Amino acid sequence: MTANLISTTATRPAPRSPLDAEELGSNLWRVLDSFLARQSEVLRSVSADLAVLGEALSALLAKGKRLRPAFLYWGWRGAGEPADNSVVRAAAALELFHAAALLHDDVMDGSDTRRGMATAHRRFEAGHRASRLLGDPAAFGRAAAVLLGDLCMAWSDELFTGCGLDPSRLARGRPVFDLMRTQVMGGQYLDLLEQARGEFGVERARSVIRWKSAKYTVEHPLLLGGSLAGAPPRLLDAYSAFEVLLGEAFQLRDDVLGVFGDPRRTGKPAGDDVREGKRTVLVALAHERATPAQRAVLAGALGNPQLTERELHRVREVLAGTGALGAVERSIQRLTERARATLAAAAVPAPAGDMLQELARTATVRST
Amino acid sequence: MTANLISTTATRPAPRSPLDAEELGSNLWRVLDSFLARQSEVLRSVSADLAVLGEALSALLAKGKRLRPAFLYWGWRGAGEPADNSVVRAAAALELFHAAALLHDDVMDGSDTRRGMATAHRRFEAGHRASRLLGDPAAFGRAAAVLLGDLCMAWSDELFTGCGLDPSRLARGRPVFDLMRTQVMGGQYLDLLEQARGEFGVERARSVIRWKSAKYTVEHPLLLGGSLAGAPPRLLDAYSAFEVLLGEAFQLRDDVLGVFGDPRRTGKPAGDDVREGKRTVLVALAHERATPAQRAVLAGALGNPQLTERELHRVREVLAGTGALGAVERSIQRLTERARATLAAAAVPAPAGDMLQELARTATVRST
Fold first, then answer.
1. Helices assigned H by DSSP within A110-232
2. ipTM of the complex, rounded to two decimals
3. The pLDDT of residue A200 is above 60
4. B181–A144 C-beta distance less than 8 A
5. Alpha carbon of A107: minimum distance to chain B alpha carbons (Å)
6. CB-based contacts of A288, cutoff 8 Å, min separation 6
7. Helices vs strands, H then E, count in chain B
C-alpha cells in the first residue's frame, strides 16, 4: 500500500535513469548474456551436468540493480570518453564480481533469500534433496555455491581483461580493480570479526562500512571508469571526494533497509541483518544512547537466528526510540547533499554529470 | 624411520631437480614472499586485525610442492625462451591459484589437515575459540577460509596480469589461464556431484579426474608456459600429448596415495579420500571386480566420516585383493612411459627436455 502511494505521487516524469540511459541497461544485459552463453559452452564440454551452474548465475544476475556498472560507465563518460561497447564489458565485469561476492556472502551468513529468490546454496541444497542424493544436502549446497562464486570471480576477471579496451587503458584501471578486490574481501573479514566480537562501537562500525561496502560500491567503480578513460587527476580527485561521501550514505541506507526495509523491495526477509547480528552504525548509535532495558532488547535480538516478528518489532522501537534512526537518516541526507555539491562543483560534462547526480539519489533514496 | 632409510640409500647424486634448477625454487619463493608482503600492507591499511590472513596464507604456501609453477616454467624454457623473472612471476600466480582452490576445497570437504598442518578453516576456528568470540566457531572458520581463498584467487590474477611479460605474450597465455580456471571449477562441481550420486563407474571417475585435476595440474600449466613463450603449434601439440598422458598418471598416483599414502609424506591423514567418499578410478575398478562381501566393505566405508583404522585396513585389502591396486599401478607406469616417450620424440631443447622428463617422474613416482 505504501509502495503504491509512493509510485502514484511520482507524477513528474523522471529523467532517463542512469541505469538505462544510452542503452546501458540493455547493453549490459546483452554482454552478460552472451558471455555466460560462451562460458556455458565451456562447462558443457566438461559435462552436461554443469548446465545448472550457468542457470543459477543467470537467475541471480537478472535481478541485480547494477549500480556498480553504472558508476563505472558514467565515470568513463564523465571523463569525456564516448559511449563504447568495451567499457560496457568492463562494467559488466563488476557485476560478475559482485555476484561472486554475494554468492559467498550468502554461504557465510547462511542466508535463505537474495534478490527475492532462494539463495544459490539453498537452491543447490533443494536440488540435492529432490534428487535424493547421498550426504548432507546443506553441505552440498554450500560447496556448490562456493564453486559457483569462484567461477564468477574468474569470469569477472576474464571479462574485464578481455573487454576490448587497449592495454594502456587497462593498465591504468588495473590497480583500481585489484585494490577494490583486496579491500572488499579484507572488509568482509573485518565484518565477520566484529560480529564475532559483538562490538557495538560506532567508529568500528563505520570502519567496516568504509572498507566492506562504501569504497567497493561507489568509490572504486567510479574511479575505475575514470581511470580507464585516462581522466585528469583533478577529475579523479573530485570523483573520490564525491564517492567517499556517497558511499557512506549508501551503506547507511542499506543498514536502515536491513531492519526497516520492505522485503518486496529489498528482496531479503525483514530483519535479516538483525538475525545475522550485523554491527551497523545504526545499531551502534542506538546502543550508545540506549537505556539498560533497551540494551537488553538489542543484546537479545542481535545474532539470534530464531528472532520472531514481535522481537524484531521491539528492536525497531529501540532503534527509533533512541533517536538512532533519525540520526542516521540525517547523516544520509547530509552526506548525499555534500556528495552532490562536490560533484556539481567539478562541472562534469553532460550527460554524465546529471547521471551521476541521479545515481547518487538512486543509491541513497529512502524507498529503494 | 622409513624416511631416514630412503634418504640414506639415495647415494647417487640426483640430477638437479626441476623444482630447483635455475634457482626456480628460491626465485618462486622470493616472488611469492614479496608479493604477499605488499598485499599485507594493503590489508594492514584496512585494519591491523587482517594480518592473520597473510600469515595463514604464507604458512600454506611455504609447504607447497610447486609442481604447477615448474611445469609452466619448463614449458616456457622448452620453447627456447631464456630464464626470466617475469615468467617466474607468472608461474607463482599458478601457485596462488592452487592455494585458493585448496582453501575452498578443504572447506567443502571439511578436511582437518593439509600439507601436514591444520587446514586454514580449522585454524581460524581454533582462533575463534581461543579468543572466546561469539557465534559458531566452525562457521566462522569456514567463512574466514572462503574469504582467504577469494583473496588468493584475486591475487593470483593480479600477479599473473602484472607479471611483467609484454601484453602480446600475456594475450597468448590468457585463454589457457581462463580455460584452466573454468574447467577446474567445473570439474570440482562434477566431483561433488559424483560423490553425492554414489556412482562407481570407471568412466565417470576418469572424467572427473580429467577435468578436475589432470588438465589443471599438468596440461594447462605446461601449455600456458609454451603459449606465453609463443611456442610453435608443433611443440604445443607435443606438450598436449605429453601432459594428457602424464596428467592422468599423476591423478591415479594421487588416488593411490589418498588411501595407501604415508601421512608424513602426503600431509593428510591416511584414508581421507575414503572418509570423504571420493569416487576414484581405483575405487571404481575395485567395485567392478569385487565380490558382494567386498562391495559391502566399500559401501560401508566410502563417505563414512567415522571410519576406523581397522575399517580402512579392510578397504585397503579389498583394493589390493581385487587386483584394482595392481591395475592402477600398471596404468600409472604405462601412462608415464608413453608420456616420456612422446616428449622424447619432440626433442625439447636442453635443459628443459630433461627437466620435463624428471618432472614426469616426480609427479608420478610411488614414494612422493
1. 120-130, 137-161, 167-197, 202-209, 220-228
2. 0.89
3. yes
4. no
5. 8
6. A200, A202, A324
7. 18, 2
